[in-house]
Write a structure and sequence with these properties.
Strand content: 35-45%
Helix content: 10-25%
CATH class: Mainly Beta
Radius of gyration: 20 Å
Number of helices: 3
CATH architecture: Sandwich
Number of domains: 1
Length: 328
């Protein structure tokens, strides 16, 4: 084969590879684009069966579109990025997390995005927009977190979830606020967030502060809150008090990107997922049972075999009975 045919063949191959990495154009029902950053990520369309929440899930190879009241979930060690079609809201979905966009609207006069979080952690960044009406919310079973152009991390642990952060799942310092079963926790990184608990008056949380909404709906802030900013290490460094121990958090974007890059084995957050010099971390399987964990020698990088999805489930509000608290 001469030089020109080889060159044409290479160009054709690169074009096909590029197409495989890009999502198809959104249709009128799509509200957000999901990008799998690392690990296992699924989406579920609203038209999926309503009588069995475990049916209808589709693996995300790199990109996918989600629709209103559809679902996105990550497994242990999985990270996804969710961006609304208007670019106003960006969510980093933490490991073992389940979210759904309940409402989405973007027009010249109003922008609205309401995210349902029945399990896991989400880092939300809502861009300030010049609109007459603005409404950004993350809802959990016991609280509504509202903001106008801000950045914050939310976590909810359901009553029926497996307790504790799975050993070896990684990214704990970037996502885990230590929420106990039935608790909502948040840290405001920029701007302000209004917390509306099930009982009592709303509470406004300023940047650099955190809050805990317990199972009874009571809000703990200030010195009563187990999460505190550690400004000596940076504006996005925090500590979590867990019994007699203190755990550090680095909620900066650079720390998250560095951890993703480490797990991808040098492929980079924008590189081909799970390509490049890979860490020997076993094979993802569909077998039952727990997770075998360990660490790659000399790296401190988690080893995952058979990662698990969130254990709680909740059908979309319009479809069937729930096996966990439904969206309000």
């Amino acid at each position: 084969m001469g030089f020109l045919p080889k060159a044409l063949h290479l160009i054709r191959w690169l074009f096909v590879a590029l197409l495989a990495l890009q999502p198809l154009a959104a249709d009128e029902n799509d509200v957000a684009e999901v990008e799998r950053r690392v690990g296992l990520v699924d989406i579920r369309l609203p038209a999926a069966p309503t009588d069995n929440f475990e049916l209808g899930w589709q693996k995300v190879a790199r990109f996918a579109w989600v629709q209103r009241t559809g679902w996105t979930r990550t497994y242990d060690g999985g990270i996804a990025e969710c961006r609304t079609v208007d670019g106003a809201v960006n969510c980093k979905v933490g490991p073992r997390t389940l979210i759904s966009i309940l409402e989405f609207l973007a027009n010249p006069d109003e922008v609205r995005c309401i995210i349902w979080l029945p399990e896991g952690s989400v880092r939300t960044k809502a861009s300030p927009v010049d609109k007459k009406l603005r409404r950004y919310e993350v809802r959990t079973p016991n609280a509504v977190l509202s903001a106008r152009g801000t950045a914050w991390l939310s976590q909810y642990t359901p009553l029926d979830a497996k307790i504790g952060w799975t050993p070896g799942s990684g990214f704990q310092s970037c996502f885990d606020l230590g929420a106990a079963p039935g608790e909502t926790r948040l840290v405001v990184l920029d701007g302000v967030v209004e917390v509306k608990p099930e009982v009592g008056d709303p509470v406004v949380i300023q940047a650099g502060n955190a809050a805990v909404i317990d199972q009874a709906g009571q809000v703990k802030t200030g010195v009563e809150c187990p999460i505190q900013q550690d400004a000596s290490k940076g504006q996005q460094s925090y500590t979590v008090q867990e019994g007699d121990k203190t755990r550090s958090l680095d909620l900066s974007e650079s720390a998250l990107d560095a951890n993703i890059d480490l797990v991808q084995g040098g492929a980079g957050s924008l590189g081909q997922p799970d390509s490049g010099p890979q860490i020997e971390r076993g094979t993802y399987t569909t077998a039952g049972g727990g997770i075998e964990t360990g660490f790659q020698s000399g790296t401190g990088v988690p080893l995952l075999v058979n990662p698990q999805p969130p254990t709680s489930s909740c059908a979309p509000p319009s479809g069937g009975p729930c096996t966990a608290p439904c969206p309000p």
